[in-house]
């Protein structure tokens, strides 16, 4: 079994010195030695390290390096690819790679760790082992994210993993249902109404990009009580704005400078595309949501904040198709049914 291991840093690629965690240039050698000592020599790993940083320091510059490396890989030379990553921005990079690499007919698995691997509390080795199981099972192609807890070895669709809870460091699945899990070195896919089937995962997807260069900024806004839109600086004119909504698909529609409707009109006057999500389908809805329907904004339905943001980053940093056309495509199951 030949697997390409793409090292990018993060906690899984760090060590602790004087109570401080930081990335370590020898992390890949240590990770593979510990893996082989624990699980044996049955897997042939090839290692590359395009970037080496803590994921909270992720930027368009580092994402461009990683994405273009991933786009240049000869996937026919490997049974699968594993990307090690930091946990802080794991859900963002996972979403981006899922939509960018949906055309690849091999499993790509992104993993992270809760502690450096030389810490006994770390789940890094377990996550690596689960990622290998996803690949060796040869069940499904696509981009997946693995992050386990004790006896839980959860596999997420890369476009549906949501940022971890800051208290217990647990990730969750947008829509409430992870894709599956690993057990006894097998990849088991959950049977539920919102997850794609194995056949759907293995369907052929078109390749949209040969290279990518992220440079145009997207502004991300989340609502909160008493939010004052006068504090939002539009002077640098972002390429687009994603205004994520409360879970009911709503935002404040009263209160002058706290009124989303007035902010939307301002964006329209300034020629800044405004996207809102995650919106809800249905015949009934809150009056605040119905007031928003009258606006000249782009509505995104049933999509996580991370996937909506990273998809807009793709849409407004390419010239293959119009941003609106790209946003309308379901690139890798980022839109739930």
Distance between the termini: 35 Å
What about the largest sheet? 8 strands, mixed
Spans of at least 5 consecutive residues whose pLDDT stays below 50 are: none
Global structural class: alpha/beta
* CATH architecture identity of the largest domain: 3-Layer(aba) Sandwich
CATH topology of the largest domain: Rossmann fold
Mean pLDDT reading: 94
Gyration radius, rounded: 21 Å
Q: Count every helix, treating DSSP H or I runs of 4 or more residues as helices.
A: 9
Supply the key terms.
337 residues, alpha/beta, Rossmann fold, 2 domains, eight-stranded mixed beta sheet, four-stranded parallel beta sheet, 22% strand
Ordered list of secondary-structure elements with their pairings:
Layout: E1 2-7, E2 14-17, E3 20-23, H1 27-39, E4 44-48, H2 60-72, E5 80-84, H3 90-100, E6 107-111, H4 124-136, E7 142-149, E8 152-157, E9 161-162, E10 172-173, E11 180-183, E12 186-189, H5 198-202, E13 218-221, E14 240-244, H6 260-269, E15 274-279, H7 287-292, E16 298-301, H8 305-315, H9 323-328
Helix pairs in contact: 3-8
In short:
It is built from 9 helices and 16 strands. By secondary structure, it is an alpha/beta fold. It has 2 domains: 2-202, L-asparaginase, N-terminal domain (Rossmann fold, 3-Layer(aba) Sandwich); 218-328, Rossmann fold (3-Layer(aba) Sandwich), CATH 3.40.50.
Structure write-up:
By secondary structure, the protein is an alpha/beta fold. The protein folds into two domains: 2-202, 3-Layer(aba) Sandwich (Rossmann fold), CATH 3.40.50.1170; 218-328, Rossmann fold (3-Layer(aba) Sandwich). Helices cover 26% and strands 22% of the residues. It has nine helices and 16 strands. It has helices spanning 27-39, 60-72, 90-100, 124-136, 198-202, 260-269, 287-292, 305-315, 323-328; strands spanning 2-7, 14-17, 20-23, 44-48, 80-84, 107-111, 142-149, 152-157, 161-162, 172-173, 180-183, 186-189, 218-221, 240-244, 274-279, 298-301. The strands form four sheets. An eight-stranded mixed beta sheet has the order 4-1-5-6-7-8-11-12, sandwiched between helices. A four-stranded parallel beta sheet has the order 13-14-15-16, with helices on both faces. β14, α6 (260-269) and β15 (274-279) form a beta-alpha-beta unit. α3 (90-100) packs across α8. The longest helix is centred in the N-terminal third of the chain and has 13 residues, at 27-39. The model has no long low-confidence stretch (mean pLDDT 94).
